[in-house]
Amino acid sequence: MLFKERDIATNGTLDRVGMAASFICAVHCVLTPLLFTLLPLFGLTFLKDERFDWAFIVISIIIGITSLIPSYLKKHRALLPIILFGFGVVLLITARHLESLSTELPVVLGGGLLVVTAHKVNRHLCRNCEKCQR
Fold first, then answer.
1. DSSP string of the chain, one letter each residue
2. What sign for the dihedral angle of Cα 9, 133, 116, 89?
3. Which of 9, 17, 61, 102 lies in the 20 to 30 Å Cα band around 111?
4. CA 25 – CA 31 distance, rounded (Å)
């Protein structure tokens, strides 16, 4: 086995990475439309590519699954982080299909906030769980 019983999925590392990735994604989604015209000046046109947005969403999903599911199954058995994460992902995916920036932005921010909150709740539950502390 690559990791000991208290592995990277349940010691909070993936939750911290997930929170950071979700935060970066939210900042990207907020700033890209505002700085849209300046991106070519700095050689950052890839930031407005839709594939970049989808990559962030996929990375967030992978990190969330590898962090939240093991914590639920092997440790605290609390569904709240998974529910928050699920709603957050649904909002992020929904936002990618919205045409108007005025509707997309709040939906993306709400989705990102739910994903970050899911990881924070999971970390809190793991810190207060006897099984997680072994």
1. --S-SS-TTTSSHHHHHHHHHHHHHHHHHHHHHHTTTTGGGGT-GGGG-HHHHHHHHHHHHHHHHHHHHHHIIIII---HHHHHHHHHHHHHHHHHT---HHHHHHHHHHHHHHHHHHHHHHHHHHHT-TTTT-
2. positive
3. 9
4. 10
Question: Using CA atoms in the order 27, 23, 69, 84, what is the torsion angle rounded to 10 degrees?
Answer: -80
The residue ranges of every structural domain in the chain are 13-127
Evaluate whether 117 touches 76 at the Cβ level (below 8 Å).
no
pLDDT tens track for 92-105: 899 888 777 678 77
Low-confidence residues of the chain: pLDDT under 70: 1-12, 24-49, 101, 129-134
Main-chain dihedrals φ then ψ at residue 24, nearest 5 degrees:
-60, -40
